[in-house]
Design a protein that fits this description.
The chain is an alpha/beta fold. It has 4 domains: 3-167, 3-Layer(aba) Sandwich (Rossmann fold); 186-295, Transcription Regulator spoIIAA, CATH 3.30.750; 301-414, Transcription Regulator spoIIAA, CATH 3.30.750; 420-479, OB fold (Dihydrolipoamide Acetyltransferase, E2P), CATH 2.40.50. It has 16 helices and 19 strands. The chain has helices at residues 12-27, 51-70, 81-85, 87-93, 107-129, 137-146, 150-156, 163-173, 204-208, 216-228, 253-261, 281-289, 307-312, 319-332, 351-364, 391-414, and strands at 3-8, 31-32, 41-46, 75-80, 99-102, 175-178, 186-190, 192-193, 212-213, 233-237, 268-272, 297-299, 337-344, 368-373, 420-428, 434-438, 443-446, 456-464, 469-475. It has a 5-stranded parallel β-sheet with strand order 2-1-3-4-5, with helices on both faces. It has a 5-stranded mixed beta barrel with strand order 15-16-17-19-18. The longest helix has 24 residues, at 391-414. It starts with a strand and ends in a 13-residue tail after the last strand. Bound molecules: 5'-deoxyadenosine and iron/sulfur cluster (SF4). Residues 195, 197-199, 202, 204-205, 239-240, 275 line the site of iron/sulfur cluster (SF4).
């Protein structure tokens, strides 16, 4: 049996991809393991969004050398966004890497290659067990046959997947399920891939390619399948989910959300990420219509609060338009929670423009926010704008903004005190408490029995910190009200 360890960096699209590949490998009889030292195959799913993410990858690859030296047949593969644009460099720099396949490479081709890797690993593992290969020679010979650049290797060979595996491969491309021991089952389903927006700071259109949507029928079938298999939380994923257009029927995101909401069962649906320029009233109305299924949460990336910087970023909305969209979301979806992404120190951002961002953050009062310093990325349009803000200035702006964001999160969280929230119990924490999540994506902690993991229950919020709410169970799971999970 071949054991596989996944190291996944980056966004939920990467989580979905790793989960899909993991379930494909399980279909081949592989098992997932919790640490590198137990693995025959290590798959690293990489993120290129900021330089820091890439640096983390390089130091991790350095750490893996030790495992490779101990286990000569160990294979280490790199997939995802860094693999997309630094393939040759990775192969040259890290000789012990067995294969590299980019995020935009054809998925079935990659899985066909991977199926072959598993067969080879089985042979090499057996040889090693019989003491034939203490030196690792077989590993090297086999690697030469297979080829380390997946695309190149596959173009020279004519491997095909058997029909059953082909079907599983197509499913794997759409994402997969995560269910760590003792936790609820979560499904991550890609509804679109790639991105056509070309925000000037962002490398994603270059690493993941042009935008494409999966057919609505396939997505609905996939969600139904995951729900029947026990998934309690479904996350629909795309770089820009609300530009979804079914390739067969041309229906848009609102229709997809409604179709998913109509699937019978007890589960919650989230989606990441919408683009403010594409948020339309019909999407929000569907959210408001199915509150028991569609979470009252919207991740709504601001990026900057200055209209001039937004234009330089090619975000195609102004500060005022963003704020109007926020008003619309709050007006149509009662009790909705909002989170966001913000970048500070974009090339040319003046101190006054930064203060505008700070001001918008204060005005909106986000429940949660991710904030980043601008990182200059090769291939992007902003690359040629230089990196005009000094690291010290960027750090100061980030610290200042984060203080505002923390205060905003605390203030929004405190509004829940004394209110009842419907929550989904995710797991028991190490200190014996139950950890749940609200429809608005707030972490909620309270005392309760471990048997409640995976159920929806009502909790009265008694305390609120900036990163979690604390409360008490008020309704036994057998008497769950059909009420949705908003603050009462
Ligand atoms: N530098 C800093 N942050 C970035 N993001 C994307 N590209 C960059 C970059 N070059 C942020 C954006 C995006 C989030 C996923 O990462 O805020 O929404
Ligand atoms: Fe990047 Fe912009 Fe596309 Fe998001 S919408 S993935 S930030 S290019």
């Amino acid at each position: 049996m071949i054991s596989v360890f996944f190291k996944t960096y980056g966004c939920q699209a990467n989580v979905a991809d790793s989960a899909g590949i993991a379930s494909f490998l399980e279909g081949l009889g592989c098992v997932q393991v919790e640490s590198e030292g137990l693995a025959d195959l290590i798959i690293i799913n990489t993120c290129a969004i900021r330089e820091k993410a890439e640096q983390k990858l390089y130091s991790y690859l350095g750490e893996l050398l030790e495992f490779k030296e101990k286990l000569p047949y160990l294979k280490i593969g790199i997939i995802g966004c860094v693999a997309s644009y630094r393939k040759d460099e990775m192969l040259k720099r890290f000789e012990y890497i067995s294969f590299v396949s980019g995020a935009r490479d054809e998925r079935t081709t990659f899985l066909t290659y991977l199926a072959d890797v598993i067969v080879q690993l089985q042979t090499e593992k057996q040889l090693f067990a019989h003491n034939f290969d203490r030196t690792g020679d077989v590993t090297l010979t086999q690697l030469a046959i297979l080829g380390r650049d997946v695309k190149l290797a596959m173009s020279k060979r004519s491997l095909v997947l058997p029909a059953r595996l082909l079907k599983e491969g197509a499913q794997a491309a759409m994402g997969g399920t995560l269910a760590p021991e003792g936790e609820i089952k979560r499904a991550f389903i890609n509804i679109t891939t790639g991105c056509n927006n070309y925000c000037t700071f962002c490398i994603v259109p270059f690493t993941r390619g042009r935008e494409a949507s999966y057919p609505l029928e396939d997505i609905v079938m996939r969600v139904s399948h995951e729900v029947v298999a026990g998934a309690k939380e479904i996350t629909l994923i795309g770089q820009n989910v609300n530009s979804y257009t079914c390739p067969q029927t041309a229906v848009r995101f609102a229709a997809l959300l409604e179709a998913v909401a109509l699937i019978p069962g007890s589960f919650w649906v989230r989606y990441v990420s919408p683009h403010p320029k594409d948020m339309t009233r019909d999407v929000l109305e569907v959210m408001a219509k199915y509150p028991d299924k569609l979470c009252a949460w919207c991740h709504f990336p601001l990026q900057s609060g200055s209209s001039r910087v937004l234009e330089l970023m090619n975000r195609t909305y102004t500060k005022e338009e963003y704020l109007r969209q926020v008003d619309l979301i709050r007006a149509v979806v009662p009790g909705v929670a909002l989170s966001t992404d913000i970048i500070v120190g974009f090339p040319g951002e003046t101190h006054e423009e930064f203060l505008e961002t700070r001001d918008v953050a204060q005005q909106v009062g986000f429940d949660m926010a991710y904030s980043f310093v601008y990182s200059r990325r090769k291939y992007t349009k902003a690359f040629s704008m230089g990196d005009t803000c000094s690291p010290e200035e960027k750090a100061a702006r980030l610290a200042d903004l984060q203080e505002v964001l923390r205060a905003g999160s605390l203030a929004t969280a405190q509004r829940y005190i004394g209110k009842n929230l419907r929550v989904l119990v995710e797991k028991r924490t190490t200190n014996g408490k139950l950890l749940a999540r609200s429809s608005g994506n707030h972490r909620v902690v309270f005392d309760g029995d471990g048997s409640l993991v995976g159920t929806f229950i009502e909790v009265c919020i008694t305390e609120a910190g900036q990163s979690e709410l604390r409360g008490e169970i008020i309704v036994a799971p057998t008497a769950i009200s059909k009420e949705h999970g908003r603050a009462a």
